[in-house]
Write a structure and sequence with these properties.
This protein is α/β, with parallel strands linked by helices. The protein folds into 2 domains: about 1-225 and about 430-455, Aldehyde Dehydrogenase, Chain A, domain 1 (3-Layer(aba) Sandwich), CATH 3.40.605.10; about 230-420, 3-Layer(aba) Sandwich (Aldehyde Dehydrogenase, Chain A, domain 2), CATH 3.40.309.10. Helix content is about 40%, strand content about 20%. The chain has 15 helices and 20 strands. The longest helix is centred in the first third of the chain and has 26 residues, at about 75-100. The radius of gyration is 23 Å and the shape is globular. GO terms for molecular function: oxidoreductase activity, acting on the aldehyde or oxo group of donors, NAD or NADP as acceptor. Keywords: Oxidoreductase. This is Aldehyde dehydrogenase. InterPro entries: Ald_DH/histidinol_DH (IPR016161), Ald_DH_C (IPR016163), Ald_DH_CS_GLU (IPR029510), Ald_DH_N (IPR016162), Aldehyde_DH_dom (IPR015590).
């Protein structure tokens, strides 16, 4: 593993797993499942809470490692770990009441409806927020009585693997298993007959292969996929007041978040003022290594993503759009030794162009004018993605009215980013942005089967 911000630095060496390793991990998870599922739910909750405590204690050691292997800022990796701990504790807090069997009884019969675990879960995790995204799967899976095999991303395997190893040490053997590797390992997990549930976070194209593999043995799946999140700005906002929060929602993790703002729709009447204000705020971003305390944005994670974003920017420059590359380079002499891209803001762009319609997953944002609110909503919905969205207005009631017309899994008002998520609200997308939901009791529901028992009196 090489540091995306300092490519000459080797961060870690990670064993590359094989198909045979994946098979052994699934066998171990299945054997552990036979006893883990029999534990009282209260015992499982306490065990998972103990693992969460171990995870929390690992933050000082592992968050700098994560910053070096995936390119994020140290503060962003600390948020990743902290969110993972919080999600686990929240899930533990709602599980016992949810898992209580339902009883229906009358003078003729009694019905008991139990919620039972599925079995072995394959959890396939991406590189951008690997700790939180892993625990969004593991917490509900383990508490409901399943066992897991985790496949980290090859672009950020080290910190997650070490964190899971620490957590596994306080759980029965085989409850948590990890196999690193490439696509062949992922396919071995998604096709394995003993895997009864797949939870995948990643790209839509890979998800299609996951679905096809799951179909061979009719596995249950949860997919949390890409987004092309719109932010709709209403005409009553003060651009200077909302801009810091909006820019944060665009450029956190260098734009490499599935529900980051990917396109901004602005009233034509305030387009020039809005664009100029955005450029002023974006120009204050300091781009550098994730462990440099001065940095407010790090590099992108890997060569393919770097080249994809650079090509998008170059393609946009060749059109009639106005492209502004902003921000400040920290240690510019190091830039050839990392995947650094300046934050880029684009205006006067064709609303059907590639930059607007794709998931950029990088630090570049198109700003598109609209004449009427109906037009803005139509453009926002004109996509096969449907993860998140946001509406910005001085009138919350008006913003909510617009939010109800957006085709997305969730809509945030006057904010957009990690700090706006709430574990009490379901997280997930519609259309090609996913299947299923994480957070809330719905996350637990994705990892259980219903078992009904009825008898006559």
């Amino acid at each position: 593993m090489k540091d995306p911000g300092r490519l000459t630095d080797v961060v870690a060496r990670v064993a590359k797993g094989t198909v045979e390793d994946a098979d052994h991990a699934v066998e171990a998870a299945h054997n552990a499942f036979l006893s883990w599922r029999k534990l009282d739910v209260g015992e499982r909750i306490q065990a998972v809470l103990a693992a969460a405590k171990v995870l929390e204690e690992s933050i000082p050691q592992l968050s700098p490692l994560l910053a070096r292997e995936h390119g994020g800022l140290l503060g962003e990796t600390q948020v990743d770990f902290g969110y993972a701990v919080g999600v686990t504790r929240f899930t533990a807090g709602i599980a016992e009441s949810y898992l209580t069997p339902q009883v229906i009884e009358d003078e003729t019969c009694r019905i008991e409806i139990e919620k039972v675990p599925r079995g072995v879960v394959a959890a396939i995790v991406p590189w951008n927020y690997p700790i939180a995204l892993a625990m969004m799967k593991l917490a509900p899976a383990l508490i409901t009585g399943n066992t897991v095999v985790v496949k980290p991303s090859p672009f950020a395997p080290a910190a997650l693997t070490l964190a899971l190893k620490k957590m596994a040490s306080v759980l029965p053997p085989g409850v948590i298993n990890v196999v690193n590797g490439d696509g062949d390992v992922g396919a071995a997990l998604t096709r394995h007959p003993l895997v009864r549930k797949i939870s995948f976070t990643g790209g839509t194209q890979t998800a299609k292969h996951v679905m096809a593999d799951a179909a061979s043995t009719i596995k249950n799946i949860t997919l949390e996929l890409g987004g092309n999140d719109p932010a709709i700005i209403l005409d009553d906002v003060n651009p200077a007041e909302i801009m810091p929060a909006l820019v944060k929602g665009i450029f956190t993790r260098s734009g490499q978040i599935c529900f980051a703002v990917k396109r901004v729709y602005v009233p034509q009447s305030m387009y020039d003022k809005f664009f100029d204000t955005m450029c002023q705020v974006v120009d204050e971003i300091k781009v550098g290594h994730g462990l440099d305390e001065r940095s407010t944005m790090g590099p992108v994670n890997n060569r393919n993503q770097y080249q994809f974003v650079k090509d998008l920017i170059q393609q946009t420059k060749q059109s009639n759009a106005v492209v502004r590359e902003l921000g400040q380079k920290l240690q510019p002499e190091e830039w050839e030794n990392g995947y650094y891209i300046l934050p880029t803001v684009v205006r006067d762009i064709d609303p059907t162009s590639t930059l607007v319609c794709c998931e950029q997953f990088g630090p570049v944002i198109p700003v598109i004018p609209y004449q009427t609110l109906e037009q803005a909503i139509e453009m926002a919905n004109d996509t096969e993605f449907g993860l998140g969205s946001s509406v910005w207005s001085a009138d919350r009631n008006r913003a909510v009215e617009v939010a109800r017309q957006i085709e997305a899994g969730f809509t945030l008002i006057n904010g957009h980013g990690i700090d706006m998520l709430d574990v009490r609200m379901p997280f997930g997308g519609i259309k090609q942005s996913g299947i299923g939901r994480e957070f809330t009791e719905l996350s637990l529901a994705d990892y259980i089967e219903y078992h009904g028992i009825r008898y006559l009196k």
